[in-house]
Amino acid sequence: LAQHYLDRIAASNLNAFLDVEPELSLAQARAADERIAQGTAGVLTGVPIAHKDIFVTRGWRSTASSKMLGNYVSPFDATVVEKFNAAGMVTLGKLNCDEFAMGGSNENSAFGAVKNPWDQQAVPGGSSGGSAAAVAARLAPGATGTDTGGSIRQPAAFCGITGIKPTYGRVSRFGMIAFASSLDQGGPMAQTAEDCALLLNEMTGFDERDSTSLTPEQGNVREDFGRDLAKPLNGLRIGVPKEYFGEGLAADVEAAVRAALEQFVKLGATLVDISLPRTSLSIPTYYIIAPAEASSNLSRFDGVRYGFRAPEYKDLQDMYKKTRAEGFGPEVQRRIMVGTYVLCHGYYDAYYVQAQKIRRMIADDFQAAFRDQCDVIMGPVAPSVAWDLGAKSNDPVANYLADIFTLSTSLAGLPGMSIPVGFGQGEKNANRPVGLQIIGNYFAEAKLLNIAHQYQ
Ligand code: GLN
């Protein structure tokens, strides 16, 4: 099985993988065979998986798709990687993404864009674009992703696969190269909700090495996320936020999403009109908080502790400056500058503190909806299908605006998933997938997977 996928990876031209080490994969595969022969195998033993290059791995390079970490090899495994290794899974390699997970098209990678396997003119989405493309093109049966503001859900939507961002704090961030620590959350990407459930079973759990990991007392206990897959949806109340269907939503995406909602009605659910009034504020709020945290997290890349150092410099200050100017790409530099600015004395209250207040209000809006009106919320993942490679690559604001439907969920720390529900329309979009977003209350992962599975 591992050899089958390694052959497919070698033959593909999507630029989805950044590092493949067949000897290491095959050694894991042989160890899995032995476990199977000895009768000590678990459900995932011998199943191949590939990791977004945000998760550090022993043996494979860990670059975060940045020149800054171009040749970096971690001395330890991320907790998520460690758990999958312990389950006997076979690592196929490391997957391309936007640099430090900053972006929504994978074009911010220092190692080149990934192509969308459905249409090679199109972006795969991002930042987990390599993960989504690899699963869609059957280069891996499953992959890890990280979602800070949509980076599991949006590439899953653009590549027609299934992905879930769990409740913030359920999956350890230890060894996940940090972007915005209060938002970053790992999760699985696969063909189906059933496959995501199997992967999530191994991924979650308290980790004392992550200071924001949810504890068992807080509810972060091991559970079988697939336990409710077969449950009928009779009586399910689906909130449909009007702000997710307004101006700016492409007609073809709306048509596919509305058709999926009708399918849920046939499955026994009812649709409830709801309002999430601060949806549009999620963009300025997120693009203050995420860069602020990023500017702090990325201060560690100083040319001394990790990876790249500029080859020529006068003194220590000059070494820092040149290392960071040469090592970080333009989007990462932009965010460090924005983040440093909003944290400055004198601006901190006007920007950062204000953003934190709105963040709380956004979370409260979701709680009001879940308390009074609905069990889950559904809407589009993104305002359009995947756009053309290059179409927005020089326009950061256009990229930020396309995150409108995924950012609120992240700011609130809620679980959200994307499932494939059809394709765009017209000559250009007919082969570009549409994703439906399903958002649940805290710890509702099993319910989201149940709903997705009933549709699938
Ligand atoms: N597109 C968003 C950004 O650029 C989200 C990225 C993410 O979730 N990692 O920040």
UniProtKB/TrEMBL annotation:
Catalytic site: 52, 127, 151
InterPro entries, per database record: Amidase (IPR000120), Amidase_CS (IPR020556), Amidase_dom (IPR023631), AS_sf (IPR036928), GatA (IPR004412)
Q: Ligase among the record's keywords? A: yes
The Amidase domain covers which part of the protein?
A: 1-449
Q: Where are the transmembrane segments?
A: none
Q: Cite the EC number.
A: 6.3.5.7
Q: Keywords on this record?
A: ATP-binding, Ligase, Nucleotide-binding, Protein biosynthesis
Catalytically driven reaction(s)? L-glutamyl-tRNA(Gln) + L-glutamine + ATP + H2O = L-glutaminyl-tRNA(Gln) + L-glutamate + ADP + phosphate + H(+)
Q: What does this protein do?
A: Allows the formation of correctly charged Gln-tRNA(Gln) through the transamidation of misacylated Glu-tRNA(Gln) in organisms which lack glutaminyl-tRNA synthetase. The reaction takes place in the presence of glutamine and ATP through an activated gamma-phospho-Glu-tRNA(Gln).
Query: Can you state the subunit structure given in the record?
Result: Heterotrimer of A, B and C subunits.
Sequence similarity: Belongs to the amidase family. GatA subfamily.
Protein's recorded name:
Glutamyl-tRNA(Gln) amidotransferase subunit A
Source species: Massilia agilis
Q: What lineage is this protein's organism placed in?
A: Bacteria, Pseudomonadati, Pseudomonadota, Betaproteobacteria, Burkholderiales
